[in-house]
Write a structure and sequence with these properties.
Elements lengths: L1 H19 L6 H25 L4 E7 L2 E8 L1 E3 L4 E2 L6 E2 L4 H14 L9 H4 L13 H6 L24 H9 L15 H15 L3 H10 L8 E2 L13 E3 L5 E3 L14 E3 L1 H13 L5 H7 L9 E5 L8 E10 L2 E8 L4 E7 L5 H16 L5
Antiparallel strand pairs: 1-2, 1-13, 3-4, 5-9, 6-9, 7-8, 10-11, 11-12, 12-13
Helix pairs in contact: 2-11, 3-7
């Protein structure tokens, strides 16, 4: 009897489709279509990974749906352990997107103000211009304070040794400004290093604790954290540098204390997918603070551009940010209108240009021949 009614249902479905002119779509058809799309992405992304010598993880999503994710190459070359979806990577300057949210939350709560000066927020920083640099200048990289990698001896290992916060602040204060405060955009890690210290000062807690309480736990980012050289991080990819002859060597270590809040986090592709979603779909930020962060004219901890991705003459709004440190390279890129997202995490020093090229090619494919 059950088979009889099933047969009647299929006959009725076919008849209905015939009357409407529609073609019936069965579960097996949808599964086949999904497998075909998966195979197309495997081929396309695999070719890009080979072209750019990419080792790491790729995640592609449309809105809340992940349509492709896969690891490439090795997380550990000595033991031939492959990169998987569970592999963690240091994300370097992508950490700034988290730090900026913490600061914006404190502004929204009235703990901080965009007009607060560096002199009042961080009295230990004794530079003549400290009273002219505001919180907003630090967030927007318009403080004019030099990038601390310009410090004499930085690339000769002078800052690999332990250094107190006060001593490091004095070293930065001794550098000349590269622009007047508020005059122009000049990227500098010092800006976000200061923001990390300010967060600690006004909350009375460590940056790691504030990050966990305000972002990681609320969004269930269970595989993201604050990196220190002494910590044992499960499933963290080893970092590699490619030499001139094409071989790989293990990358050296930085003084992790000098990168707190500016380049200190590790994460997974899955967590960064959740992070991007949380920025837009949660109450992590008020609408007012979110509009400030994603202000197209002067974004905070993101970059904005318009680009024609499908040769239609219509430009897409693209947001992105990236990071590079000691052989690790990271990239998030997404379109505002179509809501396509690409997350790339790399551990063989592929570099910014390679990851940007891969991300744009993937978005172009998503907009054109492999429309999601």
């Amino acid at each position: 009897m059950r088979r009889f009614f099933s047969a009647l249902f299929l006959i009725a479905l076919a008849a209905g489709c015939a009357m409407s002119g529609a073609k019936p779509v069965f579960v097996s058809d949808a599964a086949d279509a999904g497998q075909t799309k998966r195979s197309m992405w495997e081929e396309r992304v695999g070719a890009l990974a080979g072209e750019h010598d990419f080792d790491g993880v790729v995640l592609i999503a449309l809105g809340d749906e992940k349509v492709f994710e896969r690891g490439y190459g090795d997380a550990n070359r000595s033991w031939k352990i492959p990169n998987t979806l569970e592999t963690k990577f240091r994300i370097a300057s992508l950490s700034k997107t988290f730090t900026a949210v913490l600061v914006l939350q404190l502004v929204d709560e009235g703990v901080l103000s965009f007009d607060d000066t560096l002199a009042t927020m961080l009295p230990a920083y004794r530079a003549d211009y400290a009273g002219e640099v505001t919180l907003h200048h630090l967030l927007a990289h318009t403080s004019g304070i030099s990038h601390y990698i310009d410090l004499p001896g930085w690339f000769d290992g002078a800052y690999l040794q332990p250094r107190t916060v006060d001593a490091f602040l004095s070293d930065i204060a001794a550098l000349p400004l590269n622009a007047q405060p508020g005059e122009k955009y000049r990227y500098s890690n010092a800006n976000y290093y200061f923001l990390g210290l300010i967060i600690e000062r006004v909350t009375g807690k460590s940056f790691e604790t504030v990050l966990s309480e305000r972002i990681l736990k609320p969004l269930s980012l269970n595989d993201t954290g604050h990196f220190t050289n002494s910590a044992i991080v499960a499933s963290l990819a080893q970092n590699y540098i490619r030499t001139d002859d094409g071989a790989f060597t293990r990358a050296g270590a930085t003084n992790d204390a000098l990168f707190t809040a500016t380049g200190s986090l590790y994460s997974t592709a899955e967590d960064l997918f959740l992070w991007r979603r949380g920025l837009w779909a949660s109450d992590l930020l008020s609408n007012a603070e979110r509009s400030i962060m994603f202000d197209r004219a002067a974004p905070i901890a993101w970059t904005f551009e318009r680009r024609d991705l499908n040769d239609s003459g219509v430009s897409s709004s693209i947001w992105s940010y990236n990071g590079e440190i000691d052989g690790y390279t990271s990239m998030i890129m997404f379109t505002e209108e179509a809501n396509h997202l690409v997350v790339l995490l790399n551990n063989n020093n592929a570099g910014f240009n390679a990851l940007r090229s891969m991300s744009l090619d993937i978005l172009k494919s998503a907009m054109n021949d492999m429309a999601l």
